[in-house]
Structures are given as C-alpha cells and as structure tokens.
C-alpha cells in the first residue's frame, strides 16, 4: 500500500450554517468511553447542522486493497446501489457530504471517490438512529446494516452487527452467504484539523476482502 500527501484547506463553516448540539452518537457510548475521545473527534460527532444543511469533508485516498473475491463482491453489490468501494486508485480525491434528514431524524451520506480514468464512483447511504443497536445504515433497495459503536484507544469504531432487508415494517435478516461479512469503519484524529477514515471488510470464510483509507479535512459547510 502507498500513502499520498494530503492537500487542502481548513476553512470555517459558512456564515449561514447554524450548528446545533448533537447527542445522537454520544448516547450510544458509556461516559468513560466518550471521555477518551480526542477533543476534535468529540466536537466533530457532537455537531449537527439544521435539517437540509450539509457538512462537507474533502480528502485523499491513500490506501486501497482488494482480494479477488472482495473485488468481485464489490462489483456485484452495485446491483443494490454500489455501497462498497470498487476502485484501487490512490492519490485521488474523495469528497464526503453529510446532510441532515429531517424526515427520519438521521443523516444522508454521499461519498464521491475520483478515479484516475473514467467517471468517479458515487456511494449513497442513510444513517438512522434506530434499531437494536441504536444505529442503522441503509444502502439501497431496503438493505440495511446494524452498527455498534465503540472507542478503541482514541479511535471511534463502527462495526457491523447484522444485515437485513426492510420490507415495509418488516425487517428480514439476511443469510450469511448474502452478506460481505464483518464491516469495520474507523475515525482517527490526526491533529491540525485532519482525521483518517478507514473501511475494512472481512469475510468469515474468505478473510480480508476490502481495505480503503483516506485522510480528510473539514473544509466547507
């Protein structure tokens, strides 16, 4: 894997953006764990914009790796909206937009990952603060994933805790053979307004499938 140097600015939020106190992530953790987070991480996950407003993070992909099975699984997942990265390019920009969803009380996430050739990949998902773990992510066609949140060292970690299909009010668990396995997302503060985001997918039978890492700065709102 190869690293690329981060470039970008760290501009403050625009004047029209109203920041609100957000306890939605905070209530999912014990007080002791929340207190171990770096101040910058605490602030980032305690900030909420008004319904319909967005926060934008701009970064650089510095690591990307796939097993053969992982790459093909990511391609197949495009049938439900492409929730997994599909490119191996590094040194390319990634833009993440988090928009408040007033209808559900959750967040809409859009990830744009540039490619050295061809069109960028766009990944859409929606986070809802509901379900048995208090946090769910929907990726398209009713497919959802429950997430458990934890603090490991000073890193905020999100781990999959089951996959399902939402049909109206009915939630149907998906069999293991239809899922990618264990998904882990980490958020590590790097200081000076930067943080690292990683995504890892590990299958119980096929091992490590997908790894992606990017370094971000919050730039505009």
Automatic annotation (TrEMBL):
<dbReference type="Pfam" id="PF13761">
    <property type="entry name" value="DUF4166"/>
</dbReference>
<dbReference type="InterPro" id="IPR025311">
    <property type="entry name" value="DUF4166"/>
</dbReference>
<protein>
    <submittedName>
        <fullName>Uncharacterized protein DUF4166</fullName>
    </submittedName>
</protein>
<feature type="domain" description="DUF4166">
    <location>
        <begin position="37"/>
        <end position="216"/>
    </location>
</feature>
